[in-house]
Amino acid sequence: MLDVLKIAGRNLSRYRRRTLLTLLLIIIGMVAVLLFIAVTGSFKTMMVGQITDSVLGHVQVHRKGYVASIDTLPLNLNVKPGAVAKVEEVLKQDRAVETWSPRVKFGGMFSNFSETTSIRINGVDPVREAATVPLLPGRMLEGPKTGPLVEKGQIVIPMLLSRGMKVALGDTVVVVATNRDGSVNGKTFVIRAITEAISGPGGRDGYIHIDDARELLRMKDAEVSEIAIRLKDPAQLPRVTAALKEALGATSGKAPEPTPGKTPGGAGAGDGKPALEVHTWADLSPFASLASMIDLMTVFIKVVLVSIVLVSVMNVMVMAVYERIREIGTIAAIGTRPSRILSLFLAEGLLLGVIGTALGTLISLAAIYALNLWQPHFAFGQQQDLVMAPTIATLQVVTVALLVVGVAVLASLQPAWKASRLDPIDALRHV
Where do the H-state alpha helices sit in 171-286? Predict the structure, then answer.
């Protein structure tokens, strides 16, 4: 085999210009694909992290029907205390779950005593919320970024609301809300912090302490609108989601079967109430469509790379066979087996693929390293000064490399097969 590769290398060196042009096409294709995967993959990971780590969490649990009516933040579809206890019991048993945060969400009116506008309020446990969405404290444009996220009697408001209502840190404001029974209640708050705008969900949300939210809504029970969950490893998302659906009876939309020896309760069991629903961040964020588009574009550019390699290598090999017909006839006439001739041309395609892939990979990794040193900044939606830090997994590099080498060998197969089947006498007569 080593002799075959040596002969193949010598044959490629005989046609240097054509070989270099083919290698250049393969290298350009490799660099384009690997850079695209690194940049878009890192952008996708960063934006998903922005959404999950500052707003949504990785998974959320709601009462059935809540997400379908989420625009109105219905209070009549809150999760009852028994169901909350059931969810927390299930979460404690799953080692992939890092933490979770109960939330009370509702729409209200925000007033600075001279003007009034609408606001979406998140009543949260400050410690658990900061652990579930760890990027949220860092989004504070004004106000403390350390310590409790919010304390009783305080409110965190979005930047858009602060500018529109002309309110600042330390100002006293009023939040008015209508509870489930239709009665109206108001409560004064002091502005603790102002959050930056974010693309996607959460761009206009305010935060208060969960006890203040229940007091404002006159809740008698410790019910919640949703439970946001953070995982130790986001790669475990499909497994954890499936496990939660099964444990909470959310897969079929029915209440889970009671465990023998235990009193039925929890996620709608035994009380005739709807079961719970489990939603991933992708179910709740419009960015999921953009993430899917990025994946589709990655597949498309891989197809383009395959086409470049296929056409360039096949062109070289077809020309090589055509120009060396008499040479092929000579070696066939002296007793060289067709399989040997086949392997000679396949080895040329293999060398083209391996050399082009190796050089393309090295250039791509160097370019990715240079981009990380440069750290270019960019804006996305309402978010400014985001830093591009492209990375690429070893598996992705290996996959693309194997794809290119495989296509190069495949492109050589037809010309190699034709060369191995030439009749020696006809080949020697070729002019």
Answer: 210-216, 237-248, 281-284
Q: What is the DSSP string of 315-376?
A: HHHHHHHHHTHHHHHHHHHTT--HHHHHHHHHHHHHHHHHHHHHHHHHHHHHHHHHHHHH--
Distance CA 412, CA 410 (A): 5
Per the CB < 8 A criterion, the answer to whether 106 and 71 are in contact is no
The C-alpha atoms of residue 425 and residue 330 are separated, in whole angstroms, by: 9
Tell me if 93 sits within 8 A of 286, measured CB to CB.
Answer: no
Let me know: does 189 contact 175? Beta carbons within 8 Å: yes
- Asked whether 72 and 107 are in contact (CB, 8 A), the reply is yes
**3-class SS of residue 421:** coil
Measured CA to CA, the distance from residue 407 to residue 401 in angstroms comes to 10
- Calpha distance 50→133 (Å, rounded): 9
DSSP assignments along 84-105, one per residue: HHHHHHHHHH-TTEEEEEEEEE
Q: State the pairing for strand pair 154-158/226-231.
A: unpaired
In whole angstroms, give the CA distance from residue 249 to residue 246: 5
pLDDT along the chain (431 residues), means of 10: 79 82 88 90 86 92 91 90 92 94 95 92 95 90 88 93 91 94 93 78 79 94 94 93 85 45 44 73 86 86 84 82 79 82 87 92 94 80 71 91 90 85 72 48
CB 154 within 8 A of CB 192: yes
What residues pair up with 258 in beta bridges, in sequence order?
none
Closest C-alpha to 116, from 64, 51, 186, 56: 186
Q: How much is the pTM?
A: 0.76
Instruction: Give the list of residues 6+ apart from residue 95 with CB closer than 8 angstroms, or none.
Output: 232
- How are beta strands 116-124 and 59-63 bridged, if at all? unpaired
Give CA–CA dist 21/209, Å, rounded: 66
Length of the chain, in residues = 431
- Phi/psi for 62 (5° steps) reads -130, 165
List the beta bridge partners of residue 122: 105, 207
